[in-house]
Amino acid sequence: MRILIGADTYAPHVNGASYFAQRLAVALTARHEVHVAAPSTTLRSHTTFSADGVIEHRVRSFAVPGHPGYRFCPPLGLRAEAARILDEVQPDVVHVQSHFPLCRALIRAARERGLLVIATNHFMPENLIHYLPIGTAGRASLHGWAWRDAARVFAEADIVTAPTPYAAALATMSGVAGPVLPISCGIDLTRFRTEAPSADLRRTFNLAANPIITYVGRLDAEKHVDVLIQSFALIQSSTPAKLLLVGTGAEHRSLATLAEDLGVADHVVFTGFLPDEDLPAAYAATTVFVNAGTAELQSLVTLEAMASARPVIGADAAALPHLVVNGETGYLFPPGDVAALADRLRSILENPVHAAELGYQARRAAEQHDESRTVAAFENLYAIRRPTPAAATPHPAPTDHPATAGHRTPGSHPTTAGQRTPGSHPTTAGHPA
């Protein structure tokens, strides 16, 4: 099968949606011809072949102000560029990863050609609007508009998926026509395992044999790393632990200043960007992993820590409770509650046997998200129908594809298209039970 993945964020961008698109594309090359349409790193479009066997169609883009390394494709001329790519590739299916300009253009061009369109939503307005200086009322208004815009675009897709039951229910309740199928982003269990070597990383960052509290991810506002630093300050005097912060972001400087002000800077290690191949060592060095974020649709880094058999502490918000089971794989804490997080950290750091038990259960839970299941689930969706370009119209008439596969026709009513209730699990789509 010839598959085209569309992504408005892709390598070298550092975020969960980018990593998922990259990993899915590479995994699919084992049985398929895989193309990716994504922003170029320059003002020119070009096609290149990756070392992993993916054919990349890079589309001219501009830098995102204030976010070094991020690029976006301006809408002007994108419809023609999307049409050119589709006519050149002639894919059997188009799988977009967002509703932003490049993917939006690909969806519309694909519909015009009668191609099967699958859309995966990784978007939450909270990940973007907090950067805008428009006040609380302005953010609330923009939040609603952002979801309406996403719903309008995804209405043109045949199938919409999201990484978790929470993410699927959120999209549906925010106006995306159902069914929205929950399919985990998945995890490579061969890379993230219980005993990866970590000695080199410990030497590099002078971690010695200390217990390590770890966070991996962007150092941005919605990740609430400041809450973790404040909690660490409450327990630092009573533990030899160090705090390892892996990643970069807009809040790096303010977080370093916070650590200084709280008197714990000597015990907090900012690694900066770590290459993907070094992440297993970071998790292996970890005693307990913490994610205080409140805008997670799944959290690949939390899954990676769990696959590494490390207990996790997460904010009781968004999709994290789908991974963090209180007292089994780790602990939840009320979002923003510094004292509660400090108590959870103490309970794990002071009881290594209990920490190991939590880690064991975390690994077992992560095994339900094996990447092979994710790939198989999407392959099943890709095979729902074959393209019929000769009979293509912008809005094809309904067909009698099985409702259990989640097929939608543009404009179909959610209830007649197999609408799910929040929390249901369409196992026919391959989502881990």
UniProtKB/TrEMBL annotation:
Q: Does the record carry Mitochondrion as a key word? A: no
**Pfam families reported for this sequence:** Glyco_transf_4, Glycos_transf_1
Q: Give the stretches traversing the membrane.
A: none
Where in this chain does the record put each Glycosyltransferase subfamily 4-like N-terminal domain? 14-191
Would I find Glycosyltransferase among this entry's keywords? Answer: yes
Annotated protein name in UniProt? Glycosyl transferase group 1
InterPro entries in the cross-refs: Glyco_trans_1, Glyco_trans_4-like_N, Glycosyltransferase_grp1
The segment annotated Disordered runs over: 388-433
Which terms are listed as keywords in the entry? Answer: Glycosyltransferase, Transferase
Taxonomic classification, please? Bacteria, Bacillati, Actinomycetota, Actinomycetes, Micromonosporales
> Per the database record, which ranges form the Glycosyl transferase family domain?
210-364
